[in-house]
Amino acid sequence: MRFPSSLASLLLLAGGGFVTAQKPQSTVTRFAHLPSKIYYFDDTSSVIYHDPLSQNIHRSGDEGKEWKLVDGIPEGEAAQLVEHPTDNQVAFVLTRSKTHYATYNQGVTWQKFDVPAEASLGGPPMSFHATEKGWILYQGTICEDTGTGRWGSGKSCWDETYATKDAFRTPSFLLLSQTNQCLFAHGSKDFVSPSPSETSSLIFCIAFDQSTKAGDAHSLLESRLYSSKDWFEKDNTVVDLGIGKRARGLVGLGVVSKFVVAALKADLVEGGGGSGGAGGDPMHLYVTVDGKEWNLAKFPHSSIPSLKENAYTIVESTTHSMAIDVLIHPTSSIGDLFVSNSKGTEFVISLQDTNRNSRGIVDFENLVGLDGIGVANQVANREEVVGWGKEKQIRSVITYDDGRTWNRIKAPAKKTNGDSYSCDVNSEGCSLHLHSVSTPHNYGKVFSSTAPGFVMGVGSVGAYLLPYEDCDTFVSTDAGVTWSMAFEDASKYEFGDQGSILVAVNDEEPTDFVSYSRNAGKTWLKYNFGTKIRALLLTTIPDSTSQKFILLGSTSRKDAGSQDRHAVVFLDFATMLTRQCGKNDFEKWYARPEGRQCLMGHKQWYQRKKADAECYVGNKFTDPVGQEENCPCDDIDFECDFNYVLQDGECVPNGPEPVPAGTCDKNSDKYMGSSGYRLIPGNTCDKSRGKAKDVGVMKDCSKGELESSIRELRSFHDFATTVVQHVYFGDSQTILVQLSDNTIWQSSNEGFTWKQLYPAEMFLALAIHTFSKDRAYLITANRKVYYTTDTGKQWYNFNPPTDPNGLGIPIIDFHPSKPDWLIWTGQVDCTPGTNPKCHSVSSYTTDNGRKWKQFETYVKTCSWARDRRLKTDERMILCETFKKKEGSQREKGYNPMELVAGGGYYTKKEKLFESVVGFATFSEYLIVAELNEQKGTLNLQVSLDGLHFAEGQFPPGMSIENKAYTILESSTDSVFLHVTTSAKDGDEYGSLFKSNSNGTYYSLSIENANRNKRGYVDFEKMIGLDGIAVLNVVSNPEEAAVNGRKKLQTMITHNDGGSWKPMTPPAKDSLGQPYACTSTSCALHIHGYTERRDPKATFSSPSAVGLMMAVGNVGEELAAYTDSDTFLTRDAGFTWEEVHKDAHLWEFGDYGSILVIANDEDATDHVLYTTDEGLNWKEYNFGERIFVRSIQTVPSDTSRKFLLFGTRPQKPEATVSIHLDFSALTSKKCEQKLSDPNHDDFELWSPSQSRDETCLFGRQVKYHRRIRDRDCYVGESIKREDLIVRNCQCGPSDFECEFNYHRDAAGNCVLFPTASALSPLSTEEEQCPTSTDGFWYERTNVRRIPFSSCAGGNRPDRGKQHTCPGTYQGAEKSSLFWWTVFLAPFAFAGLGGLWWVKKGSMGGGSIRLGEQRPFGGPDSGPFEVLASIPYFLIGAAGAGIAWAQEKWEGFSGSGRRGGYRTVQVDDDAEILRGAYEDD
Question: Which carries the bigger pLDDT value, residue 978 or residue 1455?
Fold first, then answer.
């Protein structure tokens, strides 16, 4: 502010104004030091000034006019001032000793009290009860001397919590020792006990094991949550948060409104529960609203790559929801704001890219007293800040509906001098932006006070917020709807007398005057208080009902002279007006703008003084009271009722509705059931004048679930056409189905009910986000993409930059850690017919489709380079791009493809290879198939950083230069690779190789492994158990080469391919009869992946450890599928039993406590199920004969609800879905007593119980699983915890043959003929980075299996010993998941990849949606990934628009998994041939 110099005390600053009878009054008091705190006793005139340097307390009894040093506290003892939040008479002064001081009369007198421990410095030293004013918890620190040693004396310290029931008037008592934090559940007045009679003394403490000696060192893992209702006298309960013994590692506790929140460091706890985001969440938040039932706070993890300790901030919350800001970009201090439901358990995104400072303080503030109105700041240029380190561009937004929607803040039309702003204030790019709480310039609330509707702020008008010193001061009198500029330059400001007086002071330079307004900021007057200071603080009593203010400032040394430099200026405006406002001086003011006035069912309004009324309000210490008018109920006032879920904006049943016993005598009766909706708790809307969505509905008893019912429940749904794809959202109950008529349907209750999404649209494809399981994208034919970020609860849309391509190119690629980062590859100039310039165009977005930027043309594939463990530049993009960027990509012709790595969103391009046929990224590997155009050969190139590559090495005569190959899954730090040795039609097979840990050296594992013409291999790993895999081999390769008929035999490995053996058959069949084949050549053979209709129907389950099911036969070779029967193993394939004649489909449920099978040869009207893992089978008839094509359940196999897809014999072109619910079979939940394992429902099982070797991979592991014959269900909340019993001594099974060696008939590793051993001295760089003893050893003929953890014993892999030179920085390796490749030289048919291997889709299609990536990774765990089955093969065939080029096979035939075309070596001139052909 720039004012003309004047000695006058009172000036008119703007036109108009009013005459005053008196001038303001002021008093200046000097202090030697600035305060740490100026504290008003609420609703009193008493103020405390704490001097932290001299450690003294000063008090004023008249709002700051006169000050004096308090009596009763020795000078220099006041280390900390603690105010009582609910008792305006009480405050405490803590010293550095065990003696402290309390006042019970607003600081007039002080009394000392003693406690057994000094105040803790680790957090707030006191916690208070909201209603019992004398109840206080004190956190103290106890230290003991540990003696004197060589390095001096030491101390052992720990915290203890003490309690008082009378505010320390009598001695305190020990509450609990070895605590980290304690608080009252009723620390907030909004927390409500579940019953009125229940005591309010509920206390929660984070503490360490009470049985250990105080002072002992503790790990964070040992911290637990304790509760008590009797001050820990008898009641000392360990709170398990609903997750059992894993409820440890507590790092934070707080009470927010009605919510009690506990933070658990989940990544420290083995088997930490909850649903993780990308890569898993290190921290979990648990919430209770009654102190009894705790629930995991569920964030939409698609929006949270990582939730870390100190990476979230609980911001101001209401009684009906909790707001949490999560740090998304740690290096840039940018977060996302989430708002919860009424229970605080499920969060939705409210505002993205929120601004915060390095201390976690978020630019978000609610306006005082106004429900649902808040101001926040966003980072507009997040991409540049995160990617390039540029300065933040901040913009401000405001909400009037509790964060559901946000809008820009409308700028004032003119400046104070009448000039216009440089931008158009009516445009989207020109608005008002305000500095907020992350950069505070005053004490208390930044924008508002209890003065109704009055808001002030320092900011700027334009596209973004300017620096503070370049900003001006603005005022609003209608809660931010409209604004005016109060002053040029930044000011500190305060509200008084309920807004009847506004006071401001210049905040850019020293000043000797304040400005004030008595007409709501229309005109401003100036008052000179006679001392020039640099203003530091302007404040008044907390409720802003007084006309007296305190201005704190500092003077220069020159101006101060001999006086103290720091001044408190007391400003008194109470003497100016003598008339108190009457009834006619007030107006009725509504808190929200027209159209948004109703929130939680009511309007809010205040009586406030009219701006031009010449009077004062008075009513000092009386807060303005808001009035409510109930609104007619509308959709927004209701939420889903119990047992209902939100689906596309509607509440649908989650299953049959429970019906109380006695309500229904027979199915023809009716009962009053739920409408699916309930009024949001706390909502006050008037249903008589609006919607009454919660009114009960009469329903047929046949549709309900009787409490006494013990029957299975079913629900049918008919789809008019064939289901071509179905996919679950992660582990949710929501499933999407795509039909051949281009429609998409959604069920949010595991198929119980269905809803068609957007019936007017024609959908080309759907894709679940590869790495963020809550997200899905639906691609239409009209350049519109529908998407969800919350498993289909709500759907939104964006417009992609180009049409989806029809060129067989993946359309969408997903980033592994940034869910909003997408790559879209579309097409341009590709109108129907021949177009000479039809080509692909790739663009990227970092905000989920709001803005796009084009970066490359003429590509085959573009994807993010980073994967879960491949730690390249997160902004790097890899592209297979054509060397010649001309012509039409539809035309055939030779045009080599280069592999280009583009750092910084493809702005820094580097050509990695001149000619490739494909690449794939997964885990920490980048694998490239390099084409040598001169020699006509292929090289396999492997990189761990995306820039440096090593070539794959094979034994002599077994290179892959001119052969097809398939890279298979491995979860054991090595790669399984299948190299085709026979590609003759009908006689395809090859050799299976296994690599070293970095994927570069390959040794033979087994020969004649079966594959089909598409390159898929009969190889499948057992999910959840390391090193166990099943493989079919061709037993008659020479004969098959002549007659084209392969004879298959099944082999199994229990040591990760180190050795293979036939599977032992059962002694008798399911009818108790012996098998006809009894010779030693007889074995069990099972049908593998290449014959499977549903590629997701795996042998094993991620939740049923040790269980496998398969279709096969006992004999010397594998029989035809229709001549096969169904088998089960409980011990990972060591022993098998036949469970039923004929081939059946199968599915696992509830961790294997229920298995369901259905006939796979003929139409059937029933399924068979077992609850004892096959000992007894029961039949359930669902009433209609169908051909069952698939049995599905949630991907983790933890539900007791199943979904059948099938076709009726008389209508094969349509699909019927049948929902089966077996939840009513038993209501008894299995007990798991880890402290008493001999008396619960679980057993410890290990694969070593059945195999010859006690140990696998150098360790013996046991697993918890339900005892076979227990009649109970496991339930979703039980997480099985693996127990590594011990690491074993190294033995023969821990070693495999070194490169160029193979096992002879005697089992010894010998060189291949003509082969040479690797140099024995070449292992230094491999061994030294991970060496624990400082030595490396020369290479021998064997090597230790990389995944083995064996220790000691015989080490035949170690030759001569050498000392490691210097220090190595090792790089951790990880497992490698499926990447399926089928290569032919000079062919565009080239490189394939797994898109998503999770269960829930019927197979692939020609719309490519990021196929080169796997879902999950090594840190995803077995519940995240079914990594043994490939999903897509990319080849020359396969069109971009599925429905324009082909029709899905759906359930018919052998199960389509995507097009593939084999191109011969001499087809180099036609590498694009077959772009629209499919096998």
Answer: 978
- Nearest one of 417, 418, 495 to 456, comparing CA atoms: 495
Exposed, middle or buried: residue 1369 (CB in 10 Å: 0-12, 13-18, 19+)? exposed
Which residues have a Cβ under 8 Å from the Cβ of 235 and sit 6 or more positions away?
227, 228, 229
Cβ contact 1208:718 at 8 Å: no
CA distance 883 to 899: 10
Q: Which of 230, 240, 238 is nearest to 207 (CA)?
A: 238
Would you put residue 759 in left (φ > 0), alpha (ψ -120 to 50) or beta? Answer: alpha
Instruction: Check residue 643 and give left, alpha or beta (phi > 0: left; psi -120 to 50: alpha).
Output: left
How far, in Å, are 398, 407, 664, 820 from residue 437 at the CA level?
15, 19, 59, 27
In order of 468, 970, 971, 1132, 1244, the CA distances from 1247 in angstroms are 67, 19, 17, 7, 10
Q: DSSP per residue over 171-183, as a string?
A: --EEEEESEEEEE
For the entire predicted model, the pTM comes to 0.66
The dihedral of CA 1187, 1192, 1197, 1199: what is its sign? negative
Residues in contact with 1370: Cβ distance below 8 Å, sequence separation at least 6, in sequence order: 1329, 1330
CA terminus-to-terminus distance, the chain: 78
pLDDT at 1452: 28
The closest alpha carbon to 531, from 513, 509, 516, 515, belongs to 513
3-state secondary structure at position 436: coil
- The Cα–Cα gap between 397 and 1020 comes to 53
CA-to-CA separations, 963 to 435, 863, 931, 935, 936, in angstroms, rounded: 65, 26, 13, 14, 11
**Residue 1400 confidence class, pLDDT cut points 50, 70, 90:** very low
**Residue 794 burial by CB count (10 A; 0-12/13-18/19+): exposed, middle or buried?**
middle
pLDDT at 197: 63
192-199: long-range contacts, CB 8 A cutoff, minimum separation 24: 192/258, 192/289, 192/290, 193/290, 193/291, 194/290, 194/291, 194/292, 199/229
Q: Are 431 and 395 in contact (CB under 8 A)?
A: yes
Give a three-class secondary structure readout of 644-691: EEEECCEEEECCCEEECCCCCCCCCCEEEECCCEEECCCCCCEHHHCC
CB 123 within 8 A of CB 82: no
Q: How many residues does the chain have?
A: 1479
Taking the C-alpha atoms of residue 452 and residue 625, their distance in angstroms, rounded to an integer, is 9
* Most distant CA pair in the chain, distance: 118
Rounded CA gap, 1204 and 1183, in Å? 13
Q: Are strands 1137-1140 and 1125-1129 parallel, antiparallel or unpaired?
A: antiparallel
* Alpha-carbon gap, residue 324 to 344, rounded angstroms: 10
**3-state helix/strand/coil string of 923-985:** CCEEEEEEEECCCCEEEEEEECCCCCEEECECCCCCCCCCCCEEEECECCCCCEEEEEEECCC
Q: What region does 499 belong to: left with phi over 0, alpha with psi -120 to 50, or beta?
A: left
Q: Give which of 1154, 1152, 1158 is closest to 1140, Cα–Cα.
A: 1158
DSSP letter assigned to residue 384? H
Residue 839 near residue 889 (C-beta atoms within 8 A): yes
Secondary structure (3-state) at 514: strand
> 199, 237, 207, 212: which is closest to 224 by C-alpha?
207
pLDDT in tens, 626-656: 888 999 999 988 888 877 878 888 888 876 6
Of 443, 312, 454, 428, nearest in space to 373 by CA: 454
Measure the CA angle with vertex 1180, ends 1177 and 1185; round to 5°. Answer: 125
3-state secondary structure of 1225: helix
Token pair for residue 1112?
A: 């096969």
Q: How far apart are CA 559 and CA 209, in angstroms?
A: 60
